[in-house]
Each structure stands twice: as structure tokens, then as C-alpha cells.
Amino acid sequence: MRPDDLKYTETHEWIKVNKKAKTVVLGITDYAVSQLSDLVHIELPEAGDNLEAGQPFGEIESVKAVSDLFAPLSGEVLEVNEEVTENLDVLAKDPFEDGWLVKLQVGDLSELDEMMTRKEYDEFVLSEAGGGDDDDDEEDEEEEEEGGEEKAGGEEEQEEEDGAGKKKKKKAKKGDDDEEELDDDDEDDEDDDD
């Protein structure tokens, strides 16, 4: 389970804040680690480097991909977790504690206001993974792209519900790149043209 006392970003970094000292610890989430899987290399900044919010501060490489690590806050790097650079299993096994990446001295903690709580991040991950309800438009587009019943004459007919629950038909001649959406009224007009 993800810790409640952290802030989270849409690029899957987490931030642990010490408001009194104006320092933060940065890492990547369990979701990011699981999406990358099989980590093979990480590049992190050095102590004394300055990071700019929204800009890459390093890279993480897996057998699947190379991904940028983004700085959620601007600040100076105080410390880098050398244990992670020497052994990526530490990050894979415990991304929220032992697998932290860098500690920063920050000047402006107001940048944290844009970050997500654990609950908001959990919901974001669900929607990104396809489990959210906000993807209705994308699902409708996917349904439109999938083939429907094939009719005589090489036409395909598909039915789908629009937002009002009304079914609409879509016909396309096989091989045509352009598809024409028809509702019940348009079908009558088309019949008149024949």
C-alpha cells in the first residue's frame, strides 16, 4: 500500500516533505517500478546539482524501455541514494523507503499544491490503467474502429449507443477509407438519393 504522508505526480514520482527544514526526498512509485519491470540501469544527478521543476533529472532503464525521471520541485540536490545506483533491487523491492532516489533542498514548497494525495494518485493510476470511468470517449472510439457485421455487397454495419442511449448505425463500404455515420434520419435521405 502506498504511504499516505507522501505527495504524488502524474509522472509517477513521490515526494516526502520536511517542511521545517524545507527538504524533500524524491522517488518513483511502485506503479512506475511495476510498469518498467526488470530494471537494469539508473542515472541520477550529483550532490550540488540544481533541479528545475518539470524537467528531467535522470533516467531509469529496464529491459523494456528507458524513461526520464522528472523533478516535481525545483531545488538543490543534497544527497543521492548510492545504494540504489549500485543495486536496483533495492528500488524494485521497496520504492517508498529504501528505494528513495534523491534528497533536495527546496525554496518554494508551494509547488507541492499541484501534487496529488495518495487517494488521488490511486484513482489516477486506476484511470491510466484503464480501470476508470473517465475513458468512455476512448472506449466509444475503440468500438467504432472494431469491425461490425458484414453485409452483402461488402458493407459493414455497426451499432453503438450514443450518450442519450439512442442507437445509431454506421455503414462503411469495405475498402473505403472514409466512413459515414448515419442516424435514422440520414438513412431516409440516403434512400431518396438512390
Question: Can you describe what's shown?
Answer:
The structure is a single chain. The protein is of the alpha+beta class. Helix content is 25%, strand content 32%. The protein contains 6 helices and 13 strands. It has helices at 30-36, 82-86, 89-93, 118-128, 136-145, 184-193, and strands spanning 7-8, 13-18, 23-28, 39-43, 50-51, 56-62, 66-70, 75-80, 102-105, 149-150, 155-161, 167-173, 180-182. The longest helix is centred in the middle third of the chain and has 11 residues, at 118-128. The chain starts with 6 loop residues before the first strand and ends with a helix.
The number of strands is: 13
The helical percent reads 10-25%
Strand content: 25-35%
Average pLDDT number: 77
Biggest pleated-sheet summary: 6 strands, antiparallel
- Distance between the first and last residues' Cα: 63 Å
Question: If strands are numbered along the chain, what order do they take across the biggest sheet?
Answer: 1-2-3-9-8-5
Order of helices and strands: EEEHEEEEEHHEHHEEEEH
C-alpha-based Rg, rounded:
25 Å
| Number of helices in the DSSP assignment | 6
Overall geometry: globular
Structural class: alpha+beta
List low-confidence stretches. 132-190
